[in-house]
Write a structure and sequence with these properties.
With about 60 residues, the protein is mostly helical. The protein has helices at about 1-25, 30-59.
Amino acid sequence: MAKRFEELREKVMQLEADFEKFYDKNNQAAGTRVRKGMQEMKNLAQEIRIEVQSIKNQG
């Protein structure tokens, strides 16, 4: 579980520069990377959510 959380944390940190480029400098390519990264984080978060629910139901 900690590995998945670390993956999520790393993805957030990787997107920081693209967020700044998109919002501060209106860099459209950075916006595309932000959207792609956010989708990946959404999918990862869903996987974590399912795993947590599974573990919770076992106990």
